[in-house]
Amino acid sequence: MALASWKYTRGARGPIGKIIASVISPEAKNPSKNNTNQKALPVITALYKKLGDLETRPSDISQVIVKQKRAGALDSLISITARVPKGRPLEWTAWDLSRASRGTPYRLSDCLSDEKKQVMTFTFQSDRKRDPRVELIVSASDKFFSFTAKMAIIGVIEADTSYQTIVAFLSIPEQASVSLVPVKKQSALVAQLADQYHKEVIIRLPLEPAGKIPDDFFGPIIMVHYTKEAIHSIIAQAMTKVPNFSGFNNLWGSRALEDSRIMGIVCNEIKKAHGYFIETRATKNSVVSSVCENIGLPDKEIDAVMGEKSDRADIEKQLRNYAATAQANGAIIVEAPISAPFVAALKASVPLLKRNGIRLVPVSEIVIHKEL
Hints:
Elements: E1 19-23, H1 42-53, E2 61-70, E3 73-86, H2 90-98, E4 106-114, E5 119-126, E6 133-144, E7 149-156, H3 163-170, E8 177-180, H4 187-196, E9 200-207, H5 228-241, E10 245-252, H6 260-272, E11 277-279, H7 288-295, E12 299-301, E13 304-305, H8 312-329, E14 331-337, H9 340-355, E15 358-360, H10 363-367
Parallel strand pairs: 3-6, 7-8, 7-14, 7-15, 8-9, 9-10, 10-11, 11-12, 13-14
Antiparallel strand pairs: 1-2, 2-3, 4-5, 5-6
Helix pairs in contact: 5-6, 6-7, 8-9
């Protein structure tokens, strides 16, 4: 049953109704040992497994057998109360739990949500009349999920980025990646430092833009009229100057990214080097995705690019927004210029990210291993 088809009810409606008698059974906390009808209820076993997958602590789960008056007769109800960790969208939790009845005689017959109190009540009804109803009441615990999503940070070195700031970024204990332009003098040194700090290195490959090439850039650029041999030579030189690389992304390239011949050659060279390709600021008519799919090269577009002149407070706000996007989509890749305010904001944001189950990972973990 799709999430959108559920009936949500705001308010304080009691989940159990008028209880005539309730019996708390020691066996109820372990469905496999119940001495009642519960032993034959695979839906309860499935619910406990789902709760375990959601990192719910055993101490946050309780179960009670309820005798409830319905239509003038006593009706059995097995009521499970669980407090699941915070830091994950409520819809995700609801979706997981709603599917627990699959493969059992039970079906989800009702789902009530009190948005103000952040409490959800699921009711499962069996097709067999002799089976008791099963109710699951879910609220948030004081614990946060250990993992809800991935965030990959790609640090970009600007012209005014100091060596000390670069070292401060690379020395952050959490995983991150750094993108290096091969012709820049400090790129080889930074690549070596990144390797020492166990950070992933990405080669920032200059590709022909639609507009004018900046006057202060000196170095080979892959142009759309270049031969296959010329492109091979430029990429080979880049790999020599930036050792220990994991993948490539583009510097400019609004024209080259739309040329299937050029990107076919570039992507095949990257595949030979066992790399991946990250597309920064993809153009409307980019052919990168289709070319990579055809040859089996892992690729992905940058999800967000942080502004160059942001202050620390603004960067922290952006990181919180990116965390929410990551939780909604499962993963996010963020490109950011390396600066002192960015390094300070990232260090300050790490505890918040961890509490919300956001894991900082190298880019390859999202591009190559796209599943969570």
